[in-house]
Amino acid sequence: MKDEDLKSLWKKNNPEEQLIFDHLKLSEIMEQKVQKFEKDIQRRNLREILAALVIIVFFTYQLFSTINPGVKIGSGLLVMAGILIIIKLVMTRNSKPTISFQASVKEHLEQTKTYLMNEKKLLDSVMFWYILPLMIPLAIITYSNPYHFIIKMAYVIFIIGVSVFVYLWNRKAGKEIQVQIIEMDKAIAGMEH
To answer: 143 CB contacts (<8 Å, ≥6 apart)?
Structure first.
């Protein structure tokens, strides 16, 4: 008998085992994709938390070392924004599913899908929890300083440019997550048949 004949005979005799094997293979493929995604998220979170800590330290110093009331207000708002960013990232990270050997493959995929949806919501709302809380205080600080108007405008244009870049980068990442959510839906639907 040829290998193909043996495979087809095995498939005919053990359809339930073949179905289990297909589900496990599907789960394994999805898990590999999610693990790559997880590494990307961990790097992003580490980078953003470190940046938020730098903001907190630097602007706490500014808050207590300056006499300019606009700079004090802006610095205080930036410290709060840094804390908000860390809290938001940690809260979303805590929604990551834990691996339970008692959960079925389908339950694990559903939990992972929920986590992916939470990450997508985080990216889709980046304007409100990340960009605006940083941009507004920076604008306050910029206009409170006695710099020449052209320098202030150049700095504001720079802030807007960085904000647009961050927004578009996060939108792109959200679209990539959406593709994974769709794949996860297909995998879950395939298990229901």
So the answer is: 70, 152
Note down the domain range covering 171: 3-192
Rounded to whole angstroms, the Cα distance separating 74 from 8 reads 70
Whole-model pTM? Answer: 0.75
Return all residues near 130 (Cβ < 8 A) that are at least 6 apart. Answer: 85, 88, 166
Q: How far is the C-alpha of 184 from the C-alpha of 191, rounded, in Å?
A: 11
Single-letter amino acid code for the residue at 35: Q
Number of domain units in the chain: 1
Q: What is the DSSP string of 111-158?
A: HHHHHHHHHHHHHHTHIIIIIHHHHHHHHHHHHHS---HHHHHHHHHH
Cα separation of 66 and 56, whole Å? 15
Q: DSSP letters of 50-103? A: HHHHHHHHHHHHHHHH---HHHHHHHHHHHHHHHHHHHHHHHHHTTSPPP-TTS
Task: Give CA–CA dist 74/137, Å, rounded.
Answer: 4
pLDDT 10s per residue in the chain (193 long)? 455 654 554 455 554 444 454 656 666 776 777 788 788 888 988 999 999 999 999 999 999 999 999 999 999 999 999 999 999 999 888 777 676 666 677 787 888 888 889 999 999 999 999 999 999 999 999 999 888 889 999 999 999 999 999 999 999 989 988 998 998 888 888 776 6
